[in-house]
Records
---
Amino acid sequence: MNPHLSFAELNARERVIQLLDPGSFREMLGPAERIVSPHLSLLGVPYAFDDGVVIGSGLLQNQPVLIAAQEGRFMGGGVGEVHGAKLVGLLQRALQVRPAAVFVLAESGGVRLHEANAGLIAVSEVMRAVLDVRAAGIPVVMLIGGANGCFGGMGLIARCADHVVMSDQARMSMSGPEVIESSHGVEEFDSRDRALVWRTTGGKHRYLMGDCDWLVEDDLDAFRDVAIALLGQSKVLTLQNLLDEQRMLTDRLSQVGDCDEATEIWRHFGVQTPDRVADMDAEQLRALNASQVKGIS
Amino acid sequence: MNWQALSLALFGELHAIARTGDVIHGTAQLGPELTIAVVGTADHAAIGVETALAQAQFVLDTVVNHPGRPILLLVDTQGQRLRRRDELLGLNRYMAHLGCCVDFARRSGHRVVGLVYDQALSGGFITSGLMADACYALPEAEIRVMRIPAMSRVTKISEDLLEALSLTNPVFAPGVANYVAMGGIQALWSGDLKQDLLDALAATNTVDARATLGAERGGRALAARVVQQVLVA
């Protein structure tokens, strides 16, 4: 075991190297190949030699895996033409080599606005590629623990995967709080109210709702342990799965669709002390979910 | 074009398409033996949890009750609904579920065609039309993530530069022609709409060839090449 390593504080390449078995990571289309976005240089904006995403193969517990990690420090992890195509290529490669899992360390604001049209199409291409891999019985696992969260198109891609793992510091949703505030005002969503933002989009809320399957501490080894547990754990989408999801989402709307606050929702689902959730760590949350919470997917 | 005029142009009187809230849904006859399921949104709907769920329900009902029936997705949306309540309830999960249902229908032998008949913006488009076998648009439709003035504010790049670049590079500016050049839109429907639909149903392809199409058309030079490079890396 490593001494505690914060997943959030590592950069994308460090996360990949630390997550996999030592020395096993082989990067594809790495920075030396300089496959960069042609659109950013036209705009006079700095580009990155990996276009903000690290992809490659490696071993996890001696099992072959494919892996991608978005670099939140480059354009917020935004998906552009090259960035998206690297993800699609990795997923298509999974169909050929059949790894024990494909891991996506997602950290992204969604479509990169500097190349918005290409990014939008790319997100849908990634969604379809994820679903192709999933249909082939190869698990796609999203690991979400970066400071920038997982928003917009990446939030959609995450929910197409077999498994979603989040840290209690991570966030996942569609529109970010700033976008909602700028559209409907601070009364609608105060993006500077940190506690409100976390209650609405954070890992604990997503876990209590069942929108993420695993909740871990912001710790590299904690992510690694769950990643190992999910090797080979495919959840092929069947008609019955989709009908069950439809029923669950319908029930959620009818049961808690009028709630204004996450704490009301948690109480409805059986959390007896919703005001204490913010102070709980991931282990306490997991225990809570197992002992108290009923009626969540 | 509004959805009633579109339905009339596509199907004449031979349709039973209705509207419930922002969602339009129903069936139409394309021939004596050919019924098509139609679902989508109207009046630039904001896609919230209810709107996504209702469309998913319709797609699933079609898969369960009418195996193999082709599906037409009609797109007119201002994008995802920008409300705190929708995020609290997990809008990304609701929208992704819609996308998964469309994808499942395709895999189960339903031909799925998308049509942007008025406006398609960002997130509202990704989980509907862009998940079809192929997506088409009317020439007067508008597709975009963001208008140039807003993009200029977000990226801190002058409108003049963005406008100038958009003349030669389709990734920057709104417009259906740009999406055609990039392969995101298969083609524009500008003639006999019913015939265009029949041709589209005959031509559907379950393989995602949009990156290749974008390269052939010169609008997205790199995507297909990068995918190929990863496959042989």
---
Amino acid sequence: MTMTDPAPRLDRAGIARRAARDLQNGWTVNLGIGIPSMCADYLPDGVELRYHAENGILGFEELSAPGEGDPNLMDAGGKFPKRVPGMAFFDSVESFNLIRGGHIDVTVLGALQVSRSGDLSNWMIPKRGIGSIGGAMDLAANAKRVIVAMEHNAKGDVAKIVEKCDFPLTALGCVDQIVTDIAVIDVDRSAGELILKEVAPGWSFDEVQARTQVKLLATDTLGEMA
Amino acid sequence: MPVNKLVNTFSDAVADIPSGSSIMIGGFGGAGGQPTRLMLALREQGAKNLTIIGNVAGISKTTGYGWPDHLDPIDQGMFFESGQADKIICSFPVPGTTNPLSDIEQAWREGRAEVDIVPQGTLIERIRAAGAGIPAFFTPTGVGTPVAEGKEHRDFDGRTYLLEHALPADYALIRAEKADTRGNLQYIGTSRAFNPAMATAAKVTIVEVDELVEPGGIDPERVGTLSTYVDRIVVRKPGDQLP
């Protein structure tokens, strides 16, 4: 069943821009592929991040021009960053010491489903029967903060924010914040509650609630995503 | 008298690998750090019933992942296309659904391949453990997910962990920038990835390098893999266009 939206939804860049707003200067971050990787393009003024990619690089910045990349200088998305001062290379043991050891300040990940207790599913669509985990389980379970950046609904207004994930899990109770094309939602994992903090311009609490399986809690002042 | 680890050709380096072997393939996924010439030689050699252990294993051919635009990518899916491998242990065997079907997924759909998908941090630690004399370890990664099924769980300081076992192999095919004649290796950039750990975890470690130097040609401060771990060295031809 498709409902009529009250106003346009944010585009992918808009989701990334909002997710990027809460990233703090000096943090070591790992951005997943897709919308999360776009956060790097929308950092607030004065914020510099230390980017980690799990293939063994810390401190990368912009990508090389098309055709000029060095295969020995890759990020985890298979793209080729430029060599810049302050960069560090290391092997996969060290890279996952950094992740599993809880040294990543924040990871921004995409999701297929997020539950009211912050469970995350993002690696396999059940009907396909095969999927790719990569570093997602390590990042989701062990980063200090996990932000999900995704479209609020799947095709046909199907809810992705659900009571209980029925897709295979990536990690239990790991998500701190959900940023979508219509809402910003904080996850109170211990209480198993989702708090609607902001809505996209032209959207109301009720319009977002109608597209979310979980009963959302209100805050005193509902903000507008910017 | 120094042991001669140098092998003249890639085909000689893999000639004795028997069918049924488990083979680690280094790098991360993508061209950098991948032992591409050794892989091509193993395909030519024809050993069958192989178990491949890799990381981002078979997505470059259909997505271009980690390869320069002007080249046709080569990845570990080649051993499933050729029918040589019947199992893969890796973290990332398939690309997103919008891409063409990879060789690994094709083989899996046809019932020709078992695919064991392991979280990347668990995979590398299992390999490290195999080389380090540690039979098993506890990790927080994967608790509550399908990868936890059937595994021992234990709580430490209020958090639940999974028991994961060391993962050794018969052979490791790895890639480095330089070797000295003793077998000390130097890596470049992000080409380390799974190579150094795999070098320690196999019965026989075979390295593909761009350059061979005399002892002293690698700064001792820059040795990335110790000569003790390396059994065979093959040097690429100067100017090889394959990354």
---
Amino acid sequence: MSLFIQRMFDGLAEGSIYALLALALVVIFRSTGQLNFAQGEIGTLCAFFASTFTLSGLPVWVAILLAMAIGFLIAAFVERVVVRPIEDRNPGAVIVALIGVFLAVNQLSAMFWGVDARSLPSLFPTNADSFFRIGDAAIRWERVGIIGVLAVVVVLLFLLFNRTKIGLAMRAVANNQESSNLVGIRVGNILILGWGLAGAIGALAAVMLAPSAGLTGTLMLGPFLYASVAAVLGGLDSPVGAVVGGLLIGLLKAFLIGYVDFLSDMLFPVMLVVLLSVLLFRPAGLFGTEKVERV
Amino acid sequence: MSENLLEVRGLSAGYGQIEVLHSLDFHVADGEIVVILGANGAGKTTTMRSVSGMIQRSGDVLFDGNRIGSARPDAVLRVGISQVPQGRGTFTDLTVEDNLRAGAYSVKGSIAADIDRWYDVFPRLAERRDQRAGSLSGGEQQMLAIARAMMNRPKLLLCDEPSLGLAPIITQNLFKILGELRDEMGMALLVVEQNAGLSLQLCDRAYVLETGHIVASGTGDELLNDDTVKQAYLGGAG
């Protein structure tokens, strides 16, 4: 039982990383209908920045906020300079351009930070005795901290989307750009803002993961794949779905590794099965909206 | 200079290399209901989109002392012009109430009183305030589109084919409401329509638009009794 609880927290913490990344994907997908392939890599680049900031003596939380700001700027830049000009001419080509951005960002971080693993301190205590007990289960504070970060992000996003004028504009643009223009929303600015927001959330996912996973250029490669499956599972247009999907995938992974020995080396094939099952039997995902409308 | 609320001179517009509107002149006076009548492809929607700043255009557009011939949509809204787009264009995934809030995006200050007011005018919307707009019927969506446009507190309301896809009885009711809005608020209306019968009865004046040219104009009654208009838009015999 104690092992089960430990694995559950492992899964939820890892799932929180996927959930953050999936949220970033969903925020962009809702507004532009694009899957941002560069999302993970932008996060990795930001984690490298954070590591350099902490080495120069800045407190970890300041380094994290700066990294998120950089993530915001990079993603906003990608929207304005890469995505929008191409989308106006050929929407289908954007996906190829984003894979290009993926490669470019990946190489950039290798160029400036090399290929050796860097360290990034955690925001939370990571000493050998930094845990608490539930019965016999030892739960590391870092795990709880990451889950807490996800909770804070979810609450802030909920307030942004549902309680502010900017959030209303973001939902309006996600739904109907033409009508958004007609009510006076500067659609271009809102798109930039949405991408920037996703960039910041993606950066947060990376700096949460890096301390335990080790900071290398491939930090977000696996998590990006898990997050993509999570986003599809939850529904690509649903922020709630991204969170639930991320946590489910995290738990699935932790329990497979823990309890199903022969599958623990085949996690990606398992994810492929999950992905295909969702697409075949529930294409809109658990929380996504199926497009049924009266005219 | 003139007492006209909206004064359009030499308005041309199109898409890419193709010019759709060829130097249109028309005007709307304060509190007036003006209809632009045209068949499919005449350029009605392009005319609306030119006034509201949704597309590139050339020519002079004067509104209430402002030159808006090259203004962007958000600037056009702020001087007091709202548009109800063709096909209603409601935010289908948003609730009815959020649609109204979005309509007031350019309005500074409290909008609670406006929302209550439009719920009074359209009680159906009040009943459905928490429902997704996409779940409303066509007629209800048209009401929502009008209420959303009115949230901007316009001096001029542009309506792009409000009768499209609606049953005649609903269209009739809709036009009645538009007329009442004008009477109560002194607001002006510019409506483009194919439905000549109803819209000419509603309006003060009308223009006939054919392939991007204005080919006739007059009061609603004059055009209702005009032989060419009867032929083209009122099913012949009249």
